[in-house]
Write a structure and sequence with these properties.
The complex is a heterodimer of chains A (326) and B (408).
Chain A: E1 2-4, H1 6-20, E2 24-28, H2 44-48, E3 53-55, H3 60-72, E4 76-80, H4 91-98, H5 101-104, E5 114-119, H6 134-138, E6 144-147, H7 151-163, E7 168-173, E8 182-184, E9 197-200, E10 205-209, H8 213-228, E11 232-236, E12 239-241, H9 245-255, E13 258-265, H10 270-282, E14 291-295, H11 306-309, H12 313-325
Helix pairs in contact in A: 1-7, 3-4, 8-12, 9-10
Chain B: H1 13-22, H2 27-35, E1 57-58, H3 77-102, H4 116-123, E2 131-133, H5 139-145, H6 149-157, H7 182-194, E3 201-206, H8 213-225, E4 229-235, E5 238-239, E6 242-243, H9 254-259, E7 263-268, H10 272-287, E8 293-298, H11 317-324, H12 328-338, H13 344-367, H14 375-378, H15 386-402
Parallel strand pairs in B: 1-7, 2-3, 3-4, 4-8, 7-8
Antiparallel strand pairs in B: 5-6
Helix pairs in contact in B: 3-4, 3-5, 3-12, 3-13, 4-5, 4-10, 6-13, 7-8
The chains are: A alpha/beta (326), B alpha/beta (408).
The complex binds thiamine diphosphate and magnesium ion.
Chain lengths: 326, 408
């Protein structure tokens, strides 16, 4: 076991994938010599060489589009988008081909590829560097939308994503990259995609979150326990599409109350889908309206205002208290 | 090329295209060649197409400040001193911003040291009614066009207030997604053409940016519609850690313009005179209806990509030293001194004026911290939808109860 931060944990998964499968290639802007702008690809070029760890020209459609071709030809590309805000330049390749090839060719050609990207706010960055647009990919059939929240699950989910026969959009909460360390097993470890994780057990209310917001959510849950004797169950979605309805519904059937927390915009966000599933699957267990605590339906502000946009522990606690008095 | 006379298909499309490919005016010949099975080997001698003929390189003032007298535009003293003032202000602001970033007074910053001449030489060619479309490394252009230094600082300090386009300025704010602004340049220019104006649009993009799809689609439109635009490619040799050679396996970036049927030229981007002359010619041509031009300005990013970057990981100190000798300011100051247009006293005065301008900008920035957090809702729509009104109330409530701080 080693204590790793998320950057190192992701790096470990990439190294393991490159080592175990010669068809895996890592490609993206500045991933080689520079070792990634966040250093997620540290030492990979030195270890695996230019044929496997590839510095591409500055062209996202080129990266994902050629990765489609590589995947068709039997390779397993792991693409990096430098920031999720620049993946739109590749979106027509993602929606038009990555998500469709298996279905289009009636199972003949698959897309065993991963598109990794840092997302989310909190790092005092320029415009387009802080958004959380996971809903776009969750809304696109044919993709799996995976979002890690801590070092250990980051490693396990990335390795599982690379091994998976179908394409994965892999979101990395950049605010968590170096925020804390966690024990990460030495032996390759994977987690099943499509499964949510109960991160904290409780009986009074269910909090559903993912990505960097898991930290604020867990902090709020601990505070609520200390301050109000409220025991919140906290669910980390980990995969937002396909969504693990069962785990969420089981929890809410027990607690009867739920608040969904995410940075992404509210309208048609992941929270909207969670609420819809709960209403469909456990309506009669609900004791109170389900709350969504999310980024607002405005563009992610420039960083002087970002803390006002991001849901924090205080906002979560208030929403929980309001939901409990309903 | 592409003459339609004598072609047998009514649109003249097939043969005009085929003639371009084969460089022959003989339609039957095309057919014969197309149908010949040579097993991969051509038996037909090919004619050369001289595409690269369109490309020229312009340098007037070399790195030792030697002037090519035949090319010297002999500009008036005001213009020349104007170049110097703008380049110096840009340099001093750049240095100040690097220091401010280290002090935590602004966020990540993308320095421009070494690229001042590209900005001064192009910006001076525009008149007020022209439009300038910046990428994200053109503070020199902004200063010249009348954006307050305060606004430049606010951009990197994380304030939307940075983008209050000043009265009398038409230019667009900084564009972060690389290359995405080039189609806007062409669209603005196209609008000028549609409205019969003799204005021009001058847009910027980096060497890395020329790899993006948007760049290519923009040039396609520019060429096809003959718009009055100048696309300035600031080739500073690097796109973060990737050298120019990683962006295209071709000798120049200028030939990308030629590839889309635009006039194109490569200039020494550290020679403000060459940049100015090439841009003036392109602007004059565009105003007269002569269509777009691509200008590849060859320069160098002397500092890091941004303050979050460590260039030691990917480039040598020697390379940087080599380019430091080509500094646009050194050679231009020498040019002015050699012509008795600048002496120590004047230089000192100009530097102190530029420093004062930067100081005022910094003070204005620091004084403008007290902003309305709700502004991020205010400009979303002409009329705020009901749902957003509800969310704004929620936002207000959260600010009231949570003590969230706004600021850099
Ligand atoms: C579409 C897009 N992809 C990636 C980035 C991240 N990024 C910012 S600047 C940059 C390099 C740009 O290089 P170049 O166009 O040469 O401009 P320079 O930085 O040299 O001014 C990259 C990759 C971005 N901003 N936009
Ligand atoms: Mg560059």
């Amino acid at each position: 076991m080693a204590q790793l931060n998320m950057v190192k944990a992701l790096n470990l998964a990439l190294r393991e994938a490159l080592a175990e499968d010669n068809d895996v290639v890592v490609m993206g802007q500045d991933v080689g010599q520079d070792e990634g702008v966040f250093r997620v690809t540290e030492k990979l070029l030195a270890e695996f060489g230019r044929e496997r760890v590839i510095d591409t020209p500055l062209a996202e459609a080129g990266i994902v589009g050629t990765a489609v071709g590589l995947a068709l030809y039997g390779m397993k590309p792991v693409c990096e988008m430098q920031f999720s805000g620049f993946a739109y330049q590749a979106y027509h390749q993602i929606e038009g081909h990555v998500a469709r090839y298996r279905n289009r060719t009636r199972g003949r050609y698959t897309m065993p590829m991963v598109v990794r990207m840092p997302f989310g706010g909190g790092i005092r960055a320029l415009e387009h560097h802080s958004e959380s647009q996971e809903a776009i990919y969750a809304h696109t059939p044919g993709l799996q939308m995976v979002i890690c929240s801590a070092p250990r699950n980051a490693r396990a989910l990335l390795l599982a994503s690379i091994r998976h026969p179908d394409p994965v959009i892999f979101f990395e909460p950049k605010a968590v990259y170096r925020a804390f360390k966690e024990e990460v097993p030495d032996e390759p470890e994977t987690m099943e995609l499509g499964k949510a994780h109960v991160a904290r057990v409780g009986k009074d209310i269910t909090l559903v979150s993912f990505g960097a917001m898991m930290r604020a959510t867990l902090e709020a849950a601990d505070d609520l326990s200390d301050e109000d004797n409220i025991e919140a169950e906290v669910i980390d979605l980990l995969t937002v599409s396909p969504l693990d309805t069962e785990t969420i519904a089981n929890s809410v059937s027990k607690t009867g109350r739920c608040v969904v927390v995410h940075e992404g915009h509210r309208t048609c966000g992941i929270g909207a889908e969670v609420v819809a599933r709960l209403v469909e699957s456990c309506f009669y267990h609900l004791e109170a309206p389900i709350r969504r605590l999310t980024g607002y339906d405005v563009h992610f502000p420039y960083f002087a205002r970002e803390q006002a946009f991001l849901p924090g522990a205080d906002r979560i606690k208030r929403a929980v208290r309001e939901t409990l008095v309903c | 090329m592409g003459s339609r006379s004598g072609s047998v298909d009514p649109d003249g499309w097939f043969f005009s295209q085929a003639n371009m490919v084969f460089g022959t005016g003989d339609p039957d010949g095309c057919r014969r060649r197309l149908s010949t099975d040579t097993g991969g080997l051509s038996v037909v001698p090919r004619k050369k197409i001289k595409v690269a003929d369109k490309l020229e390189y312009l340098q007037i003032l070399d790195e030792k400040a030697r002037v090519d007298e035949t090319l010297d535009p002999k500009l008036d003293g005001d213009t020349l001193l104007g170049f110097l003032k703008l380049m110096l202000t840009t340099r001093l602001l750049d240095e100040r911003m690097l220091a401010m970033q280290r002090q935590g007074r602004i966020g990540t910053y993308a320095p421009i040291r070494g690229q001042e001449a590209v900005q001064a030489g192009t910006a001076f060619c525009a008149r007020r009614s022209d439009w300038m479309i910046q990428s994200f490394r053109e503070p020199g252009v902004c200063i010249h066009r009348g954006w307050p230094i305060r606004a430049i600082l606010q951009l990197w300090g994380g304030y939307e207030e940075a983008n209050d386009v000043p009265e009398g300025v038409n230019d667009t704010p900084l564009a972060v997604p690389v290359g995405s602004q080039v189609p806007h340049t062409m669209g603005i220019a196209w609008g000028m053409k549609m409205k019969g104006k003799d204005d021009v649009a001058i847009g910027y993009v980096g060497d890395g940016g020329t790899s993006e799809g948007d760049f290519h689609e923009a040039l396609t439109f520019a060429g096809v519609f003959g718009v009055p635009a100048i696309c300035v490619v600031t080739n500073n040799q690097w796109a973060i850690s990737q050298p120019r050679s990683r962006q295209v396996n071709a000798e120049t970036l200028a030939q990308k313009g030629a590839g889309y049927g635009m006039d194109a030229i490569q200039v020494d981007g550290n020679d403000v005179l060459a940049v100015y002359v090439a841009t003036s010619e392109a602007v004059a041509k565009a105003r007269a209806g002569g269509g777009p031009t691509l200008i590849e300005a060859v320069t160098y990013r002397l500092a890091m990509h941004t303050t979050a970057d460590d260039p030691k990981k990917y480039r040598s100190e020697d390379e940087v030293k080599k380019w430091e000798k080509r500094d646009p300011l050194i050679r231009f100051e020498k040019y002015l001194r050699d012509r008795d247009m600048l002496d120590d006293a004047m230089h000192e005065q100009i530097v102190s004026d530029c420093k004062a301008a930067v100081k005022v900008g910094v003070e204005e920035y620091e004084a403008a911290r007290d902003v309305d957090p709700r502004d991020c809702f205010k400009y979303m729509y002409e009329d705020m939808p009901a749902e957003l009104v509800t969310q704004l109330a929620e936002f207000d409530e959260a600010l009231r109860t949570e003590g969230v701080t706004i600021g850099h």
